[in-house]
Automatic annotation (TrEMBL):
<keyword id="KW-0597">Phosphoprotein</keyword>
<dbReference type="GO" id="GO:0008271">
    <property type="term" value="F:secondary active sulfate transmembrane transporter activity"/>
</dbReference>
<dbReference type="InterPro" id="IPR002645">
    <property type="entry name" value="STAS_dom"/>
</dbReference>
<dbReference type="InterPro" id="IPR018045">
    <property type="entry name" value="S04_transporter_CS"/>
</dbReference>
<feature type="transmembrane region" description="Helical">
    <location>
        <begin position="95"/>
        <end position="118"/>
    </location>
</feature>
<feature type="transmembrane region" description="Helical">
    <location>
        <begin position="468"/>
        <end position="496"/>
    </location>
</feature>
<dbReference type="Pfam" id="PF00916">
    <property type="entry name" value="Sulfate_transp"/>
</dbReference>
<dbReference type="GO" id="GO:0016324">
    <property type="term" value="C:apical plasma membrane"/>
</dbReference>
<dbReference type="InterPro" id="IPR011547">
    <property type="entry name" value="SLC26A/SulP_dom"/>
</dbReference>
<keyword id="KW-0812">Transmembrane</keyword>
<keyword id="KW-1133">Transmembrane helix</keyword>
<keyword id="KW-1003">Cell membrane</keyword>
<comment type="similarity">
    <text>Belongs to the SLC26A/SulP transporter (TC 2.A.53) family.</text>
</comment>
<feature type="transmembrane region" description="Helical">
    <location>
        <begin position="173"/>
        <end position="199"/>
    </location>
</feature>
<dbReference type="Pfam" id="PF01740">
    <property type="entry name" value="STAS"/>
</dbReference>
<feature type="transmembrane region" description="Helical">
    <location>
        <begin position="53"/>
        <end position="75"/>
    </location>
</feature>
<protein>
    <recommendedName>
        <fullName>Sulfate transporter</fullName>
    </recommendedName>
</protein>
Amino acid sequence: LLERKTHVKTNRKEVMLAKMRNSCSCTPQKLKNFVMDFFPVLQWLPKYQCKEYIWGDIMSGLVIGIILVPQAIAYSLLAGLKPIYSLYTSFFANIIYFLMGTSRHVSVGIFSLISLMVGQVVDRELLLAGFDLNDDAPPALGDGSLQNDSQSNTTAFNLTIGGMNAECGKECYAIGIATALTFVAGVYQVLMGIFHLGFVSMYLSESVLDGFATGASLTILTAQVKYLIGIKIPRSQGHGMLVITWINIFRNISQANLCDVITSAICIIVLATAKELGDRYKHKLKFPLPTELVVIVVATLVSHYGKLNEIYASSVSGAIPTGFIPPKAPHFNLMLRVAVDALPLAVISFVFTVSLSEMCAKKYAYTIRANQEMFAVGFCNIIPSFFHSFATSAALAKTLVKTSTGCQTQVSGVISAMVVLLVLLFLAPLFYSLQKCVLACIIIVSLRGALRKFRDVPARYHVNKVDTLVWVVTMSASALISTEIGLLVGIVFSMLCIIVRTQQPRTALLGQIQDTSFYEDDLEYENLSPVPKIKIFRFEAPLYYANRNYFLKSLYRLTNLDPNLEAARRKKYEKKEKQHAQKGDRTTANGLDIRETTLQLVPEKINFQALIVDCSSISFLDTTGVNTLKEILKDYRDLNISVLLACCNPSVIDSLQRGGYFGKDFGSMQEMLFYSIHNAVQFAKDQK
């Protein structure tokens, strides 16, 4: 017999008070440790091995910076903002993560899905404020002022109702919404870090994240089609944006700009071909080809000298001011308008960052601190929001490029930030003539990885049908309804699938493997021997209120005996026998002698004397589960059938003891509970 250890009960109140006293106390050493933990760069930078790391960091930093500039300009289309704000975002995110991040390889900055979520909120608020969402209005003068852009939109909005007293144009209001949204998302992430709420990410399964990314990619693709073919259609808002946008595209397809169509076709062919060649020969290339930068440079030169905007009315990026706009605090009243939208943004940003950080840490054999990652990505949103930046996250594609080009530490992030700074200070105006269709091509080609998930559906279905269904539902909801609702639908549907699987789990009767002490499902394995006079029942799920009825129905069906019906039948039979006995008739209702009636009390179908419940797959019991086991114990005992439990874990045993399953003094516990099925079988055989 195994004896349980006696655990000393701890006073939770005293433990909490001790933790609070320890947390609130302040000593020089604790303060030093706090600063060192909050800024991990202070720990690893003094130990930086310059000769070993520097060249890999410089190379990867330059490559990421070269990739980052065209992507930042392109993703500004998704966010509905001017390209300068995307460059600000990329610059500040790299600097802050260098100081606070614990991953050596993650590339933090502008990310397509996050940009899309920001853009949807910005568009909605612009529409509610009365602005025209047509972003093809004449470009602003580009003097770097946020207050002088009202010329680019006929509607000027007095921001008194939005928390600002000055009159503000479309661009000013758009970046105001974006910075408020970013600030609130960062605050949420910091609060999640303070209260250790990182467990929220556990509810986003791989199927939900993949489905969300694929559905959002379809939305991104749809939003870029109008730039590809050069048509002017209103930016759709609200639910069903994807369908509405495609309807508008086909209605206005006759207005397509031939110059944009030809440019888009050439750019997509060049970009896609270069990506495929890069993937095929990546083991021979020391660093990936800077195809996006080459395409942007060539397209800008062709557009400028060919005067594509003046002659063919091709839409261009417009003026991008140099330098930094003076910092400005996000407006509190705008935060209230976007507080709900910031929550899914914060969760998605954190989940992508931590999952990529853990992937890199596992690959290169080091550890990260998930809570510190939450602080890092939170401050990557809070601080840049004062500098006209919007939400950031780790990006998979750039992280993979970073690791493949020799990155060793986050020094490479500083190098990338310097490349972006160079563009911000000197090179930004050179992109004035860059066609928007070229930026759309860069965005669409970057979606290859997410869109290729459709090819994995058959393999995913073969591995797990339920996960495939979760992926399809999440992807469909994200694409056809909206990204935020799609994420919520995916989470809820994923949980419902888990609940349904625990409500109707596998059940089985077990047979003995010949000449062994092991037992398995007799429907799944051949050559199993049934145990005479004994039924062994397995239930492969926790037993709780939601699956109680299924447990009982499965037990009665597999054992071919419902004790309640059998007990009722016996009572009815005994009642009839008593009536005949009172009349003095020695013949029973069945025409048999009274002495033969005892044979009728136990019908032939009851061919077992003991029921063994295999509890190895029952992880926990609630009150309903304990009462269910007590109910079958009583019902089967009334039929002279003993009920034995086998392979219970300590949690289940404790629940049974607290629920009074073994009686008040636990005296019969040794005759009701066994540590293996074989022990229970041997005990049942020894019973009379």
